[in-house]
Amino acid sequence: MKPQLLRMLPMLALAMAALMPYTRASADPVIDQLKQTLKTRLGDDADIRDIVKTPLPGIYEIDTADQIIYSDAKGDYVLTGDMMDLKNRVNLTEARASQLNKIDFSKLPLQDAVKMVKGTGARKIAVFSDPNCPYCHKLEEELKSVDNVTVYTFLFPILSPDSTIKSKSIWCSTDRAKAWTGWMLDRRAPDAAGNCDTKVLSHNLELGRSLRVTGTPTVFLADGRRLPGAVSADRLEKEMANVNSVN
């Protein structure tokens, strides 16, 4: 096993150990009552997928369609934000969100993405990105220093009508990867007419909604975990090493 992967295994063990206290009994009257109370108090639109105990006594994790929140056992108080395990230096909220929102990477319609192969292309990630998103531009800068990876970029124009115009032009370009990087890295606007078949953009928007992609950029690793935001090259390297060490 490579030295880098050996260094990552203790971090994986800590994260897994930190998440072990999140348990849900098959029948728990406290949780069942809490779910009913929160549905009443948060409104009918509250999509509560599950409730589990956290490592913090008396505090419960509520998995909603939009985010993870926390509540006391009676549903009188609700907290938002990250729960940190300081002893193990693990962001429990982020780790749980990544775990709960994993996808089946093999089922992604990769033919609907702009494909870029760097080096061997052995590692794989998928990115939902808007051409006018400042953080997407930042992510592309970070990706410049990441090698031996295949990046599948799903054009996800959600910010403005111009995002759709640019996405259509990029998709209709002879070399989509070149058109994408030319705009994202060098601000060279794509010059293709954008009048080819661009139904793929609608498909991408539907796909993003089904995967609960709420912002750009959103990165999916090959093991299905997601990394929201413009993650650094160092963070991406570490997370991809985690994929390799687990698989």
Task: Write up this protein.
This protein is of the alpha+beta class and 247 residues long. It folds into two domains: 3-100, Disulphide bond isomerase, DsbC/G, N-terminal (Nuclear Transport Factor 2, Chain: A, Roll), CATH 3.10.450.70; 105-246, 3-Layer(aba) Sandwich (Glutaredoxin), CATH 3.40.30.10. 40% of the residues lie in helices and 20% in strands. It has eight helices and eleven strands. It has helices spanning 3-19, 29-42, 92-100, 134-143, 161-171, 176-186, 199-210, 233-246; strands at 48-53, 59-64, 68-72, 78-79, 84-85, 90-91, 114-118, 123-129, 149-155, 218-221, 226-228. Strands 7-9-8-10-11 form a five-stranded mixed beta sheet. Strand 2 (59-64) and strand 3 form a beta hairpin. Helix 1 (3-19) packs across helix 8. Mean pLDDT is 88; it is low at 1-14.
Helix content: 25-40%
**Which CATH top level class of the largest domain fits?**
Alpha Beta
Largest sheet: 5 strands, mixed
What share of the residues does DSSP label as strand, in percent? 15-25%
The succession of helices and strands, N to C, reads HHEEEEEEHEEHEHHHEEH
Strand arrangement, largest sheet? Answer: 7-9-8-10-11
CATH superfamily of the largest domain: Glutaredoxin
Radius of gyration: 20 Å
CATH topology of the largest domain: Glutaredoxin
Mean pLDDT: 88
Structural class: alpha+beta
How many domains? The number is 2
**Count of discrete alpha- or pi-helical segments spanning 4 or more residues:** 8
Q: Let me know the number of strands.
A: 11
